[in-house]
Design goal:
single chain; alpha+beta; Immunoglobulin-like; four-stranded antiparallel beta sheet; 2 helices; 15% helix
């Protein structure tokens, strides 16, 4: 009699663990251990957001080219970078990567910084959020001479962003 209930007990435990695991995905800690929810203008549900780089060398604004932020479609983003002194970063060197940290996978595409548009603006193409959930876009930023290197992490949930428009 009790042995017939064992699969039901395991299923119940699995569901409880899954629900608790999902609740913990809303943490706003970046890889440096800092609580990014305390940073100005940071919102995982926004299609436009601003973050300070980890060393404080840059202030970076990231904005989606599509509203609402699409899931399952390739699109681009605009990155605007200012130095800590308020001047724009002219012709900096940017690399981009990211993915879903909770699922331990990257983007299904290979996003690239394709073009410097002038006035501190850079175009990132080839971004695709393959599913709903919490994603990260990580940028390594350097001056054109490669000296002032810093990184910034944006936490993005494309489904939440589309619900808040």
């Amino acid at each position: 009699m009790y042995t017939r209930n064992i699969p039901l007990i395991f299923l119940s435990i699995f569901i409880l663990l899954s629900v608790n695991g999902c609740a913990s995905t809303h943490s706003h800690h970046n890889q440096s251990g800092h609580d990014s929810s305390k940073q100005e203008n940071s919102d995982v549900s926004a299609a436009r957001m601003t973050e300070h780089s980890e060393k404080g060398l840059y202030v970076v604004t990231l904005e989606s080219s599509r509203q609402p932020v699409p899931v399952g479609k390739i699109h681009s983003w605009l990155v605007h970078i200012k130095k800590a002194d308020g001047s724009i970063l002219e012709k900096g060197k940017l690399t981009v990567n990211g993915g879903m940290p909770l699922h331990k996978h990257g983007f299904p595409t290979v996003p690239r910084v394709k073009q410097y548009l002038g006035n501190g603006n850079y175009k990132v193409e080839g971004v695709k959020f393959g599913m709903r959930g919490d994603w990260e876009m990580r940028f390594i930023i350097k001056t054109s001479d490669g000296r002032d290197r810093d990184r910034v992490v944006f936490k993005i949930n494309p489904w939440l962003a589309s619900q808040n428009l």
